Amino acid sequence: MDTPEKTRVAVVFGGGSTEHAISSVSAALDAGDEFEIVPIGVTSEGRWVLPAAASTSTDLVPVAGGDVTVVDARAGVARLAGIDVVFPVLRGAFGHEGTIQGLLEMADLPYVGSGVFASSAALDRDHLRKLAVAAGLPVAPYAVLRGGAPLDEAGRARLALPVVVLPARGTGGETLVGDWAELDAAVDAAREVDGKVVVASVPAGVRVTVGVLEAGGAPEASVPGELTEDGVTAPAELPHGAERAVRDLAVRAFVALDCAGLARVDFTVTPAGEVTLDAIDTMPAFDPAAPFPAVWSASGVPYDTLVSRLIRAAVRRGTGLH
């Protein structure tokens, strides 16, 4: 009796952003025995590094010893013909923000995670906040600086200190400012990454993260985890009623951006239990110790089950609008 073929999953990692190393760590997915994992690296220069090919040019097979073939992006996609689904763990610009999602849609290859729009909107801290406000989600006061414009006195009075200064798109260049004398240097650092800069108030409180999972049904939220310098502690200890609030808000944010598959949603919870939305990550880091897998593990969903549910949901969903 023939053994059923395993679902072949291309894990695309690396990329040209400053988070190349984080993406590379996430590439070591533990998917158990039900999937065949084909790792595909994207170099900082945008070249695709594929495992050595089998007897046909369209069939990819991992080869012991690490033999690889380097090709350009268009040839890389063409060589994915033997793949059932793609798990893109690219981080930051050039992959995380909708570019690879659009490429895979054009190639009619199912993939894990959100589509072009949600991926792009979530990584733009300006548009994320606009969509959140339109959906009635709570966000801290913020200002957007374009074209070299400074934050005027009215803006400073409205935001109040401390503030966080960060590029609207991309990673790096983020600075916490506790004195207005530090603002100009912080804005300059952010502009080295992106000409559009967001300056946002930082409420006093605990930073928490919630994982949202949509794997064949309505989106559901994990227990919240507290974000610390050492990682995440889950479940987080929150004021009465705050856990339900952040879980509900995480699902609402997921729906408001038309996310799919998964998302990590970060909040600040004040001592009084007030909640503000900080960020949505449509493809969070995926090594087992990262916050997204950690909060789901604390919710009773082990790592290999989480990976399996996401891959199978992506295969069922396919490409195109839903």
Report the C-alpha radius of gyration, rounded: 20 Å
CATH fold type of the largest domain: D-amino Acid Aminotransferase, Chain A, domain 1
Largest sheet composition: 6 strands, antiparallel
How far the N terminus sits from the C terminus, by CA atoms, comes to: 37 Å
Helix proportion of residues, in percent? 25-40%
CATH class of the largest domain: Alpha Beta
Outline type = globular
In total, the number of domains comes to 3
Helices and strands, in order, run as EHEEEHEHHHEHEEHEEEEEHEEHH
Count of β-strands: 15
**Which CATH-level-2 architecture of the largest domain?**
2-Layer Sandwich
CATH superfamily label of the largest domain:
ATP-grasp fold, B domain
**How many helices does DSSP assign?**
10
Q: What is the beta-strand fraction?
A: 15-25%
Give the class from helix and strand content and strand pairing: alpha+beta
Mean pLDDT, to the nearest integer, reads 84
- Weakly predicted, low-confidence segments: 17-27, 53-68
